[in-house]
Design goal:
- The chain is α+β, with helices and mostly antiparallel strands.
- It folds into three domains: 3-161, PAS domain (Beta-Lactamase); 225-306, Beta-Lactamase; 310-519, Histidine kinase-like ATPase, C-terminal domain (Heat Shock Protein 90, 2-Layer Sandwich).
- 46% of the residues lie in helices and 20% in strands.
- It is built from twelve helices and 15 strands.
- It has helices spanning 3-50, 53-58, 69-81, 159-195, 201-217, 236-242, 260-267, 308-346, 350-372, 378-394, 411-432, 489-499, and strands spanning 85-90, 95-98, 121-126, 131-140, 146-155, 221-225, 231-234, 275-279, 282-293, 296-306, 397-400, 439-446, 450-457, 503-508, 512-519.
- α1 runs antiparallel to α4 (159-195), α9 (350-372) crosses α10 and α11 (411-432) packs antiparallel against α12 (489-499).
- It is rod-shaped and about 175 Å long.
- The model is unreliable at 480-486 and 523-535 (pLDDT under 50).
């Protein structure tokens, strides 16, 4: 059934319910009006009968069918008042005169009447055939003593009789209500269809079901906000990426546990596509699109993609390129050394060949021994050796402070150290490349509670007003990369440090000095096997 048809049926049911209520009220009002008006008339006739001198004189000694005077007076009063039934009874309730001969000699039916207490009464009394409206009046002698009862009764109309009297008005009410209901339902259906873009309820239900299935089936996150920054849509992926609670829909963004920088991205106009935001340790790409309908701003929709894995692959690719460049530089250096060796052999300087080879081997071995003797963690030691070769290629001196010392650490802390040290060294190399006397010094200090890494360079340092701004995601003083992925190294490094309970800070002392503190969990070593001496 269409929306208009549903509204029409609903309105007609409402009209029918109202009509039934009106009928019930009309019947109750007509019954009350009948009892009030006809009761007064019957009471007046009963009082006239009870005050008649003939009745007062003959009633105490009257017998059923014992005379004609009392029946004549009673019938006269009934005829004049237009009543249905009249009866006279002695004080013992015995009927001595009645318009119904079958009641003579029987006790007068009083129902709930209080006439025996000497009071006049009107009300409904259940008769032999049907209920009647009766008026009972005590008959008093000259001394005020009750000597009998005068009763006047009128037929009580049945429900169908009262309904028949009300039918013309009810039909009028029904016709007017039906016309108004049909017109109202059509207008209401037209307005609702205009607001629902002409779709029927079943179509709207199907659209909502399809939307929910699509939203929750997407791997990308989707967040929709209304003009008041209230969340209207948030699928499972968006809640997982942003750390939103399950009941976030309907809440204002300001009360949700969302980082202020992320709130700013979700609510402001986006200058370009694919804006990178650091959410925890994840690198998320956001695209915000404002939504307008009929020239009115109704909110915005933001899609989110987790680019953490892709960023990791990019960093691995960058590390591979760095290693390739380093190997290429070393290959070029080794080629030059081979040329020297070849020339020395050709001219017969064999002692010089041995001396040259020992010198070249000693330089490489000295670098490896210098790092590995102080840094016991293989991953960090390998990173520092590779960065040293890269620094040499750039014309920068990378030194490991002689006071550096680090025992072997667990895998998680090792990964965190390589992330932090790699980012800090890369930034330091970028800051001093091309400068005179460019150098970078790395100090690694170990204690049972934490590992402290200090990276010092001879560059221009950090602007005093930007010592906190440089840790904000997206902040960079470098030229944008090909994918816009700049300004996340320091932000990610601080996140890694704080996740372990430490922190990352910067100061200026003849250049930039970055100090990273990471909580250290001592590596659990297996107990050494006990050697048993053989006899």
């Amino acid at each position: 059934m269409s929306l208009a048809g549903q509204y029409l049926v609903l309105q007609l049911l409402i009209v029918l319910a109202v009509l039934v209520a009106v009928v019930a009220i009309s019947l109750a009002q007509s019954a009350a009006a009948f009892e009030r008006i006809e009761g007064r008339r019957a009471l007046s006739a009963a009082e006239a009968l009870g005050n008649n001198p003939t009745v007062r004189a003959l009633l105490p000694s009257a017998e059923p069918r014992g005379g004609s005077a009392l029946p004549a007076v009673a019938e006269s009063v009934r005829t004049v008042s237009g009543s249905a039934q009249v009866a006279l009874a002695r004080s013992d309730r015995t009927v001595v005169a009645s318009s119904d001969p079958g009641l003579l000699g029987l006790p007068l039916e009083l129902g709930e009447s209080r006439v025996m207490e000497g009071r006049a009464w009107t009300g409904v009394v259940d008769g032999n055939a049907a209920p009647v409206l009766s008026a009972h009046v005590p008959v008093l002698d000259d001394a005020g003593k009750m000597i009998g009862i005068a009763s006047i009764s009128r037929h009580y109309p049945s429900t169908w009789e009262r309904l028949g009297d009300a039918v013309p008005n009810l039909l009028t009410y029904l016709g007017v209500a039906s016309v108004l209901g049909v017109a109202g339902s059509l207008l209401l259906a037209r307005r609702v269809k205009r607001q629902t873009l002409g779709m029927e309820p079943s179509e709207i239900t199907g659209l909502v079901e399809n939307r929910e299935a699509m939203l929750h089936g997407l791997k990308e996150g989707v967040v929709a906000l209304d003009p008041h920054e209230r969340v209207t849509v948030a699928n499972d992926s968006a809640r997982e990426l942003l750390g939103l609670p399950a009941d976030c829909v309907g809440k204002v963004l300001a009360v949700l546990p969302v980082d202020p920088a992320l709130k700013d991205v979700l609510t402001r106009e986006q200058p370009g596509p694919d804006q990178l935001v650091l959410v925890g340790e994840r690198l998320v790409v956001l695209n915000r699109v404002p939504i307008r309908s009929r020239g009115r701003d109704i909110g915005s929709v933001t899609t989110l993609r987790d680019r953490t894995e892709l960023s990791s692959l990019e960093r691995e690719l960058g590390a591979t390129r760095t290693a390739t460049d380093t190997l290429r530089a070393q290959a070029h250096e080794f080629a030059n050394q081979l040329h020297v060796i070849s020339g020395l052999i050709q001219i017969g300087e064999y002692d010089s060949v041995v001396q040259f080879v020992n010198g070249a081997t000693l330089d490489r071995t000295r670098l490896n021994d210098e790092v590995t003797s102080r840094i016991q963690d293989p991953a960090l030691a390998a990173l520092l050796i590779a960065k040293s070769s890269l620094a040499t290629e750039r014309g920068v001196t990378l030194q490991l402070d002689p006071d550096s010392a680090l025992e072997r650490v667990d895998d998680e802390l090792s990964r965190d150290l390589t992330t932090v040290v790699g980012n800090l060294v890369d930034n330091a190399l970028d800051a001093v490349t091309g400068a005179a006397e460019a150098s970078v010094r790395v100090l690694v200090e170990d204690s049972p509670e934490q590992v402290v890494v200090t990276v010092r360079d001879t560059g221009p340092g950090v602007d005093a007003s930007a010592t906190e701004e440089i840790f904000r995601q997206g902040f960079t003083t470098k030229k944008p990369g090909p994918a816009g992925g700049r300004g996340f190294g320091l932000a990610l490094s601080r996140v890694v440090c704080r996740r372990s309970g430490g922190d990352l800070a910067v100061a200026n002392d003849g250049g930039a000095v970055f100090t990273a503190r990471l909580k250290r969990a001592p590596l659990k070593r297996m107990p050494a096997e006990r050697k048993v001496a053989r006899p």
